[in-house]
Amino acid sequence: MADTMKKGTPGEDIRVSIGKDKDPLDLDGVGRLLPDAEAIMSMVGDCWWKLIYSARGGNWPLADYYYRRVHHLEEMLVTVSPKHTERMRRFQREALPAVLAAIFANDLPALEKAYKAATDMANVLHVESGYDYIKWELPEEAPRGLRLKPVPGAATEIKPHKEK
């Protein structure tokens, strides 16, 4: 992404150019481009909503896609806001394996149970984090503008997740 990056010595400013015709940014400038925790968690909620409705519609590869998006966004959160790392790792370790297993098995009853347990745990973790005023609830309506049923001719196999 960066066209140029100068290695700095302690106490020296590091400047990065993003694009050939752009002014260099210092690391604080690059940091201001990153989404904050609120923006990331809003995206997590959107993906979490789409995950369950995709599975309910029978589009398991799409449910898996949104699971992967949630995981990616969670990793972004711990990068931009490390204070959430312990709780996020606990959530990933305790709540998400059952969600992923149900997606791989195309098992909607198991997913509904795991999804509810994960959502409940997320809400407990919001309280632990000092955000007791945040309680995520699944919208009653399915997301609009997204085919939730299987797409004719599309792949139906869910590929194993790669460890990073």
Structure characteristics:
single chain; 164 residues; mainly alpha; three-stranded antiparallel β-sheet; 4% strand; globular; disordered N terminus
Commentary on this structure:
The chain is mainly α and 164 residues long. The protein folds into 2 domains: 4-33, no CATH class; 37-128. Helix content is 54%, strand content 4%. The chain contains 6 helices and 3 strands, in the order βββαααααα. The protein has helices spanning 27-33, 37-56, 60-80, 85-94, 96-105, 108-128, and strands at 4-5, 15-17, 25-26. Strands 1-2-3 form a 3-stranded antiparallel beta sheet. Strand 2 (15-17) and strand 3 form a beta hairpin. Helix 2 (37-56) runs antiparallel to helix 3 and helix 5 (96-105) runs antiparallel to helix 6 (108-128). The radius of gyration is 19 Å and the shape is globular.
Write the SSE topology:
Blueprint: E1 4-5, E2 15-17, E3 25-26, H1 27-33, H2 37-56, H3 60-80, H4 85-94, H5 96-105, H6 108-128
Antiparallel strand pairs: 1-2, 2-3
